[in-house]
Amino acid sequence: MKKQELESVLGRGGPGFDLGPIEDQLHDLANDRQFPDVAIAHCIARIEESAPALRAILTRAAEGEHLSREDEMRLLRGIYILGGGRDTRTFGPLLRLLRRPGRELDDLLGDVVTESMARIVAGVFDGDADALFGFISDRSVDEYVRDAVLGAATFLTWEGRIERDRMRDFLERFHTERLAGDDDFAWIAWLEAIARLGLRDLASLVYSAWDDGRIPEGIIDRSDFEDDLLVAEQSPNDIDRFERAGLGYIDDVLEALEWTSHLEYFDKEDLQSPLP
Questions:
Q1: Which end of the chain, N or C, is surrounded by fewer C-beta atoms within 10 Å?
Q2: Does the pLDDT of residue 275 top 70, yes or no?
Q3: What is the separation, in whole angstroms, between the first and last Cα of the chain?
Q4: Which distant-in-sequence residues (6+ apart) come within 8 Å of 198 by Cβ?
């Protein structure tokens, strides 16, 4: 929804209708006792107004600053809004936040990392593939975060925003330089990237990684990898392959945030998405 559409809906097309200050909506984003769908819609439609404040909270969190409960909620919902709004100025601060220790990220974001972060990162990507690859290469980053960001890079490569040859070279280097420890979850995103991009010439590296004990057991079978690789070769332009895996963009922020409707007065253990 664009700002003009929001004005039309709320003002019924009346002349001189005032949407009010965005600060009111940012307040309701964290304090409304009901799911703040109106505030979220305002922040999306008025992304030029809401993004600076949401990025400021994100930057504070990335620097390790303590956030109030209200700002924690604004951070949680705000990164969805920024991702859905394709706010590329969020990319740098978001990567800095995602370098925070795993326990800290779990307290702040809960299941957002595994459920939605790949789509959020794809949405805010500013074109700096070097920064993205450098982040994925950092073994100090939480394995599930690297898995999500590598998933984003896979989709961005399929879409053409990252050069395919650059991605292929990176995936080869990931194996050669052992950029993840044995049994690290990042290997899952690595082999899935090779499969989903149809990089059959790198399949031998995947089998080698399996034989070397690098791939976590019980997550994906060799037959699943082979099936995904074959589907990528047969239907290379099918975006559904990515969407079924939770990759792509956040097209409907309200729908993506619906699971937070019970979090108005949340505890840390509440940050578990009900999604399977």
A1: C
A2: no
A3: 28
A4: 229, 232, 233, 236
**Torsion-angle region of residue 71: left (phi > 0), alpha (psi -120 to 50) or beta?**
alpha
Sequence-separated (6 or more) residues with CB below 8 Å from residue 27? none
Cβ atoms 77, 257 nearer than 8 A: yes
Helices assigned H by DSSP within the chain: 3-11, 22-31, 37-45, 47-62, 69-84, 91-98, 102-109, 112-115, 117-124, 129-137, 143-159, 164-176, 186-196, 203-211, 222-234, 240-243, 253-257
Give the span between the Cα atoms of 118 and 99, in whole angstroms.
Answer: 15
Residue 2's pLDDT band, with cuts at 50, 70 and 90, is low
Residue 162 has what DSSP assignment?
S
* Tokens standing for residue 222: 């060799």
Cα separation, 8 vs 241, whole angstroms:
37
pLDDT per position as a tens digit, 3-45: 554 444 455 445 555 678 999 999 999 987 788 999 999 999 9
Summarize pLDDT for 202-212 with one digit per residue, the tens: 999 999 999 99
Look at phi and psi of residue 189 and say left if phi exceeds 0, alpha if psi is from -120 to 50, else beta.
alpha
Q: Where are the domains of the chain?
A: 3-263
Name the region of 20 (left: φ>0; alpha: ψ -120 to 50; beta: rest): left
Give the three-class secondary structure for 180.
Answer: coil
pTM of the model: 0.89
Q: How far, in Å, CA of 150 to CA of 132, rounded?
A: 8
Amino acid at site 130: D
Torsion angle in degrees (nearest 10) through CA of 18, 21, 22, 26: -130
Place of tokens 């963009």: 249
